[in-house]
Amino acid sequence: MNGFNEHLRLSSWNYRILELPQEKLLNEIETFTRETIIEWLLWNDPNGIYTDEMSLKEFGNVMSRDEGVEIMLRQIEENRL
After folding, report:
1. Residues with Cβ < 8 Å from 24, sequence gap 6 or more?
2. What's the 3-state SS for 4-72?
3. Which of 7, 68, 79 lies closest to 40, judged by CA?
4. Buried-exposed string 7-37: b where 16+ CB fall within 10 A, e elsewhere
5. Which of 15, 50, 60, 70 could share a disulfide with 41, CB 3.0–4.6 Å?
6. Distance (Å, whole) CA 30 – CA 58
7. Which of 61, 68, 73 is nearest to 35 (CA)?
8. Alpha carbon 37 to chain centroid distance?
């Protein structure tokens, strides 16, 4: 990886979240708003259905913060495998 890409990786909170140890990850996620969780999910899975508009259209409801946390933790775990 060249220096520029490495700088982007280290400077991006999205990537930093992926690399946090479990305890720090859980503490960090506790500080996230529902909107922050949706932003991260959209970054990590741009084809997913996370926004209120998309979710209402597809499922007839919106994702709760707790549901977003569950999905986020599952995706982080999958990235670590």
Report:
1. none
2. HHHHHHHHCHHHHHHHCCHHHHHHHHHCCCHHHHHHHHHHHCCCCCCCHHHHHHHHCCCCCHHHHHHHH
3. 68
4. eeeeeeeeeebbeeeeeebeeebeebebeeb
5. 50
6. 28
7. 68
8. 5
pLDDT digits (tens, 9 = 90+) for 11-65: 578 888 988 999 999 999 999 999 999 999 999 999 999 999 999 999 999 999 9
**What's the pLDDT score for residue 14?**
86
Confidence band, pLDDT 50/70/90 cuts, at residue 10: very low
The length of the chain is: 81
Residue holding tokens 């919106």?
62
* DSSP code, position 14: H
